[in-house]
Amino acid sequence: MLKRVAQAQQRWGGASQVIDNWLAERSQLIVEYCQLVGQKQPKSMQKLPQLEQIQHFCHHLVDYVSTGHFGVFDQIIEDCQDYRRVHGYIQQLAPTTEIIVDFYDKYVEVSDLSELNEFIDTLGIIGESLENRFAIEDKLLAELYQHVVAEQAQTNP
């Protein structure tokens, strides 16, 4: 996942400060996710991440998704001419958004490790959702990039 975000930053970095910040947040989110996954030990609940770390990850996860939906995607919709394709990609994100919001609701207020019985399995589902989400988001960024290139070609014949 980190390799893909680095490629996205190389490809689309500099197009917009909002997108640059969003991609940096994506990178940090992946690091936090990997830290949580790296601490899991399926045979023992003793090595689960600290509750504060889980709560922080939940907040960061929802902040990232919100920035996409209410910042980056709005910019892409505004800038791109092929609204149907862009809107189709955004609709494809709905299942991942739902999974992320459910994860947030379940674990953001967790106060006791005994509430984390399903945490390890759920964390795996979040990883798959993020992987799918990032692939779709990259398609949206590619749409924006294609629009920018076409616009530049029209102004610089």
TrEMBL record:
Transmembrane segment boundaries: none
Domain of life: Bacteria
Cross-referenced Pfam families: Rsd_AlgQ
Family: Belongs to the Rsd/AlgQ family.
Record-linked InterPro entries: Rsd/AlgQ_sf (IPR038309), Sigma70_reg_Rsd_AlgQ (IPR007448)
Name recorded for this polypeptide: Regulator of sigma D
The entry's keywords: Transcription, Transcription regulation
Alphabetical GO biological process terms: regulation of DNA-templated transcription
